[in-house]
Amino acid sequence: MSERLQPGALLGILGGGQLGRMMAMAARTMGYRVRVLDPDAHCPASFVVDEVVVGHWGDVDAARKLATGCDAVTLEIEQIGIDSLRAVAEIAPLRPGVEPVRIIQDKILQKTWLREKGFPVGAFEIVERAEELHGAVERLGGKVFLKTARGGYDGRGQARIGFDGPASEAELHEAWESIGARPAVAEKALDLDVEISVMAARNPSGEVRAYPASRNHHENQILQWSVTPAGVSDEHEARAEKNAAEIAAGLEIEGLLCVECFVTREGELLVNELAPRPHNSYHQSERACVTGQFEQSVRAALNLPLGETVLVQPAAIINLLGDVWIDALNGQPNFARALEVPGVRLHLYEKHTPRRARKMGHLSAVGATAEEALGRVQWAFEVL
Ligand SMILES: Nc1ncnc2c1ncn2[C@@H]1O[C@H](COP(=O)(O)OP(=O)(O)O)[C@@H](O)[C@H]1O
Ligand SMILES: [Mg+2]
Fold first, then answer.
1. Among 109, 111, 192, 308, which residue's Cβ finds the most Cβ atoms within 10 Å?
2. pLDDT 10s digits, 137-162
3. Which of 105, 260, 272 has the most ligand 1 atoms within 8 A of CB, as the residue to mutate?
4. Are residues 294 and 327 in the same domain?
5. Taking 70 as the threshold, does the pLDDT of residue 1 lie above it?
6. Is 145 in the pocket of ligand 1 (CB under 6 A)?
7. How far apart are CA 232 and CA 79, in angstroms?
8. Same domain, yes or no, for 229 and 376?
9. What pLDDT was estimated at residue 160?
10. Are residues 140 and 282 both part of a single domain?
């Protein structure tokens, strides 16, 4: 059985973005030391860690440098080169593990794994070459999301097909080119009622815990707000939590697994996609649940007992994208006004250049009900 790593141990994190930063803060709270790998020496995590190793996700030497001396290594992003992951795993325990990340980082492998294991997924087809797209779109009913197998996020690497009537050859061609003309998954466009996600955690000792589901709202395919609890039926809640726990166990995840789900207008619960790391839709878990996702990720990576995940109070977050700064009158949002709203907190990631669609921070709020928590973050956002 893996060792339980005591405070003072050194945790390595592949990626020093906002997720790496908040994991590092949780680790430091518990007395661990932290080192991150990131292409940017001034990444969000750099301000709170002991050491930054500068290098790209595919840089195997940099990955070795990160891992050397670490007691365990985890990650905040799934798009790390497989050779880098293997190199790390030879030096220190890599959590969540090479194999689950290999499967998840490729949408073709991920979707196929879910379908083969019997988890509910919407209709999809694998499209390896341009010529296969036409038939796939037809068989999927004409309205399709085309998603590149590798590297897509926040709606990037995605194209919608057939939303303005039957797709022409020109539209198919344009969609294929727009995602880089590379292997992809074509998914039937579903009629969504709500989008939810469920976080599960599994430690190397095999202990698994699921969180209460979050309800998520996207705009332009980017998460805009999220609230816990999700407010779905007890049956959907129970099934979503069970799915997440079983997927985490099936993939033998050592860490966090976030399962994004769709609830369709017909009431079907389908798995959309997986993320083997902390997730934007669980930032509010720090306030909503006994144990926040960042502390949980640290516990899992260090093989500590997992924390309780039960709801303490409803909480919500709203993302602050670079647009907020760009559109502010003098380039500076009015944070003081937002902080006047009861129950609101501010979380900024110390990214110094605002860009449109770039996640710069978030607001969180608690409330007596999910609606109140959500209303408060939305109110705070309005007065920024
Ligand atoms: N098959 C689908 N049917 C309906 N909406 C979808 C479908 N796939 C994606 N979407 C919408 O696009 C968003 C982003 O897609 P997702 O696959 O989660 O990619 P990303 O990696 O960008 O998060 C989803 O949250 C959902 O709102
Ligand atoms: Mg998604």
1. 111
2. 999 999 999 999 998 888 889 999 99
3. 272
4. yes
5. no
6. yes
7. 31
8. yes
9. 97
10. no
